[in-house]
Design a protein that fits this description.
By secondary structure, this protein is mainly beta. The chain has a single domain (24-131), classed as Beta Barrel (Lipocalin), CATH 2.40.128. 10% of the residues lie in helices and 53% in strands. It contains one helix and eight strands. It has one helix spanning 4-17; strands at residues 26-35, 48-57, 60-67, 72-80, 85-94, 99-107, 112-119, 124-131. It has an eight-stranded antiparallel beta barrel with strand order 1-2-3-4-5-6-7-8. It is globular and about 40 Å long. The N and C termini lie far apart (50 Å).
Length: 136
């Protein structure tokens, strides 16, 4: 008769070998970010549209978007609540320069999240994220 520890070790090995033990599946959603010109300096910071990707893992959303004008990035984090309400926030910065926050909201089953950007310099933009397919 084999020791009991072997039973536990063998069971754990089988469970983890599938890679499914604690892994949660994730799905990527290609999208277009579209923002109006910055309210305080529209000539310097005009409207733009840029592709991005949002990943859903369970009820968590995440993504990173490179900033193209100056070196920088936006880091997106969000949630989907039990009733299907999506809340997504993007924290952005130009390295060594300004920073901003984008906030979006919407519902599962739709393709568009509406939101806005608030810059550390005091300017604002209206923004939308439009997904190629709805987030279920």
């Amino acid at each position: 008769m084999q020791p009991r520890w072997c039973v536990w070790v063998c069971a754990a090995a089988l469970l983890f070998s599938s890679g499914q033990a604690f892994a949660q599946s994730s799905e990527q959603f290609p999208a277009q970010l579209k923002c109006s010109a910055l309210s305080t300096e529209p000539a310097k910071w005009p409207a733009y549209t840029q592709s991005m990707m949002i990943t859903r893992s369970g009820n968590t959303l995440s993504g990173v978007r490179a900033v193209t004008i100056f070196p920088g990035e936006e880091i997106y984090r969000g949630t989907i609540d039990a009733s299907g309400v999506i809340s997504l926030t993007g924290e952005g910065k130009h390295y060594g320069k300004s920073s901003w926050t984008k906030t979006f909201s919407g519902r599962t089953g739709t393709t568009t999240l509406n939101g806005s950007e608030h810059s550390s310099s005091g300017g604002t933009r209206d923004c939308t994220i439009t997904f190629q397919t709805a987030i279920p």
